[in-house]
Every structure is written in structure tokens, then in C-alpha cells.
Design a protein that fits this description.
Layout: E1 5-10, H1 16-30, E2 37-42, H2 53-61, H3 76-80, E3 84-87, H4 90-99, E4 105-108, H5 109-112, H6 127-152
């Protein structure tokens, strides 16, 4: 199965989902997968705003390319045009399935890669907390990229 478009969904699209999008895009690019579009969205975005500067800083520190990015609300149209929606937590996946009508494969990143792990929240506004979150997301996105590539080869 190929994925033309993957949505990565978080709470407010200011940190974790944005970081996961950037990391997964970079990992797929390194593995020459260019036909998959990646977008991140939030479940609760009252107005579009710039993402966390510390998230941007840690991504740049690790060599990930970042274009100008602002948070975006998840819409029914986003889901209808996508092949897969990956959420940061199982609770968020359930919220998408409950609150949206689109028929799409929607699951947490952990479920997608057959792990119980969820993407941890950044609980402190410190460089160390963002680095810890980055390491966790990068590990999860590496496993997600492997599954995506594996399914492209089927």
C-alpha cells in the first residue's frame, strides 16, 4: 500500500505534530521517498500562529530543514484527501474518529508502529525538555518511516 498523503495530528500543532512532520519528511527524503505528502494539523487551533521557537531551534540543531510554518486546524477536507492520519496519542486518534466523518485510517503513531509508546508532551519550556521530546519523536518517526517504506515495497 502506498501513502500519497499522511496527516500528523496533535493537540494544537505548535510542537509535537509539527516536529513529527518535519522529522518524518526528512527521514523519507533521505530514503528517496518523494511521492508522499506530509502535513501536520491540530485538533484545537483557535487561530493560526507560529510554532514553538524552541521546537524550531532543536530541529535546526539536528539538521532538519524547516520552512515557515504556522499552526493549522484539522479539517474534514484534510482527512478526506489523506490516506492515513497519525496522532500523537491514542486519545487523539479516538477524538478524530469520533468528531470527524471522513473514512480514513487513523491511529496513534505508537499503534502504527506496533508499540505502546505515545509521543510525550513537552512539560517544561527548556532546551533540555525539547531535546528529550525531539529524541523520542525522532525514534518513533524512524520506525514509522520504515513501515511506510516497507509498505511501498509490497
Amino acid at each position: 500500500m502506498g501513502y500519497r498523503k499522511i496527516l500528523i495530528v496533535g493537540e494544537n500543532n505548535l510542537c509535537r505534530s509539527f516536529m513529527a512532520e518535519v522529522i518524518l519528511r526528512g527521514l523519507l527524503k533521505k530514503k528517496n521517498v518523494s511521492e508522499t505528502e506530509l502535513l501536520s494539523r491540530g485538533l484545537v487551533v483557535l487561530f493560526s500562529e507560529p510554532v514553538s521557537p524552541m521546537a524550531v531551534a532543536v530541529l535546526r540543531h539536528h539538521g532538519y530543514e524547516i520552512s515557515e510554518f504556522r499552526s493549522s486546524q484539522l479539517t474534514e477536507e484534510d482527512l478526506e484527501s489523506a490516506d492515513l492520519a497519525l496522532t500523537m496519542t491514542k486519545t487523539q486518534a479516538e477524538q478524530v474518529r469520533t468528531n470527524y466523518e471522513a473514512q480514513i485510517a487513523c491511529m496513534s503513531v505508537g499503534t502504527f508502529i506496533d508499540m505502546e509508546e505515545e509521543v510525550p508532551e513537552v512539560t517544561e519550556d527548556t532546551p533540555e525538555a525539547f531535546e528529550k521530546c525531539f529524541r523520542s519523536i525522532e525514534s518513533l518517526m524512524e520506525a514509522a518511516a520504515d513501515r511506510i517504506i516497507g509498505e511501498l515495497l509490497l
